[in-house]
Amino acid sequence: MSVTATDVYDDVLKAPNTYRQQRRSVFTLYVLSILVMVALFDWLLNKQYQQEIKAAESRITARANVVTEWAKGIFALKWTSSFWANRNIGVTRDI
């Protein structure tokens, strides 16, 4: 059986289809990897945001507790000084 011209070039003619399929596969893989990367960054940024919100709430609560204790201390000191002045000096104060 002799080799014809079409048999010789048959592989060459099929090459563009294979090339196109490989190109399409690589492009699909590229798009999927970009989507996975975007989803990962979104998840990480969301977790960091939630962590920052919790930290801010924690700082606000701590600050409120400090102010509350400071106010309690001021009122206790005021009551103690009024009690001491009333007892030792005899000063009466109408409140």
Fold topology:
Elements: H1 5-8, H2 10-88
Coarse morphology: rod-shaped
Low-confidence stretches: none
| Total number of distinct structural domains | 1
Nearest-integer average pLDDT? 82
Radius of gyration in whole Å, from Cα? 40 Å
The number of E-state strands comes to 0
Q: Biggest β-sheet: count, sense, barrel? A: none
Output the helix-strand order: HH
How many helices? The count is 2
Based on secondary structure, the structural category is mainly alpha
* CA-CA gap between termini: 123 Å
Secondary structure: helix percent: over 70%
Provide a descriptive summary of the structure in words.
With 95 residues, the chain is mainly alpha-helical. The protein has one domain. The protein is 87% helix and 0% strand. The radius of gyration is 40 Å and the shape is rod-shaped. The chain starts with a helix and ends in a 7-residue tail after the last helix. The model has no long low-confidence stretch (mean pLDDT 82). Keywords: Membrane, Transmembrane, Transmembrane helix.
What's this model, at a glance?
Keywords: Membrane, Transmembrane, Transmembrane helix. The chain crosses the membrane at residues 27-45. This protein has two helices and no strands.
